């Protein structure tokens, strides 16, 4: 696909990014703006949303709209009321949750409190987001959800992240099955480590990883139902060397 085609890919489409102020969400927002979308960027902090707007600047040809909305909160009707002025969405990208503390503990050393906090931040929030956002999508729109590769393989001392990734992957796959082609398309993207601006700032960067903007460009193609993976509800983007796959690169 040429750059000109890519610039026009999402022209006239509205795409919501949940978790837009995170490292991955920020890069995805930038990529979607460059594909011409009107991007409704949501987050819980007005301050961080203002920082996002400063960072993306005039990244167009798309248009950025920021909204302080907690899409992972329990009041789904309130979330939908806050977002309904933007009309039926052509796409929604969900990049929220908790990727785990750097201070990892083994299963046998994990407290009930740590377990419950991870369930709330990295599973229940996704259940709420799916429930709130799916009805806002047009019937021919697309919901793109991100989970980590620990959903499929064990990471020692990261069992809580892995367990919640596996559970939310199952939630999304079940939603896709329940809709059965009678509503928006649902995509589950299982991702590996991602190049982001915050990670680069602390020296955690690897050219073999997909970047957050790579993920955003890919999500944009899915929203537009463009490219070879538009009809694949489950996809793996673990490393550049593996590319995009529909089965785990094990």
Key phrases:
8 helices, SDR_fam, NAD(P)-bd_dom_sf, alpha/beta, globular, eight-stranded mixed sheet, 10 strands, oxidoreductase activity, single chain, two-stranded parallel ribbon, 250 residues
Radius of gyration: 17 Å
**Estimated share of beta-strand residues:** 15-25%
Helix content: 25-40%
Strand numbers in spatial order across the main sheet: 3-2-1-4-5-6-9-10
- Enumerate how many helices there are, as a single number: 8
Q: Could you tell me the mean pLDDT?
A: 94
Termini separation: 29 Å
Q: Which residues form runs of ≥5 with pLDDT under 50?
A: none
Describe the sheet with the most strands: 8 strands, mixed
Draw up the topology in text.
Layout lengths: L2 H6 L5 E5 L4 H12 L3 E6 L2 H11 L6 E6 L7 H8 L5 E6 L17 H22 L3 E12 L10 H21 L5 E7 L2 E2 L1 H5 L8 E2 H12 L10 E4 L6 E2 L5
Helix pairs in contact: 2-8, 4-5, 5-6
Walk me through the structure.
The chain is an alpha/beta fold and 250 residues long. 39% of the residues lie in helices and 21% in strands. It has 8 helices and 10 strands. The strands form 2 sheets. Strands 3-2-1-4-5-6-9-10 form an 8-stranded mixed beta sheet, sandwiched between helices. A two-stranded parallel sheet has the order 7-8. The radius of gyration is 17 Å and the shape is globular. The model has no long low-confidence stretch (mean pLDDT 94). InterPro entries: NAD(P)-bd_dom_sf, SDR_fam. Pfam families: adh_short_C2. Belongs to the short-chain dehydrogenases/reductases (SDR) family.
């Amino acid at each position: 696909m040429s750059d000109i085609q890519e610039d026009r890919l999402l022209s006239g489409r509205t795409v919501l990014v949940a978790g837009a102020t995170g490292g991955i969400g920020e890069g995805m927002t930038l990529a979607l703006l460059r594909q011409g979308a009107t991007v409704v960027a949501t987050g819980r902090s007005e301050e961080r949303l203002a920082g996002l707007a400063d960072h993306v600047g005039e990244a167009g040809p798309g248009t950025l709209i920021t909204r302080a909305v907690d899409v992972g909160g329990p009041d789904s009707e309130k979330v939908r009321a806050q977002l309904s002025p933007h009309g039926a969405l052509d796409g929604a990208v969900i990049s929220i949750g908790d990727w785990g503390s750097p201070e990892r503990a083994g299963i046998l050393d994990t407290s009930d409190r740590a377990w419950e906090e991870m369930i709330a931040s990295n599973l229940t929030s996704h259940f709420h987001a799916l429930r709130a956002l799916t009805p806002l999508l047009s019937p021919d729109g697309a919901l793109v959800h991100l989970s980590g590769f620990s959903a499929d393989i064990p990471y020692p001392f990261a069992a809580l992240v892995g367990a919640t990734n596996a559970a939310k992957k199952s939630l999304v796959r079940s939603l896709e099955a329940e809709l059965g082609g009678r509503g928006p398309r649902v995509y589950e993207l299982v991702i590996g480590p991602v190049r982001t601006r915050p990670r680069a700032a602390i020296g955690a960067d690897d050219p073999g990883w997909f970047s957050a903007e790579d993920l955003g460009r890919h999500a944009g193609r899915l929203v537009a139902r463009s490219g070879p993976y538009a009809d694949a509800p489950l996809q793996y983007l673990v490393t550049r060397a593996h590319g995009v796959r529909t089965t785990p690169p094990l």
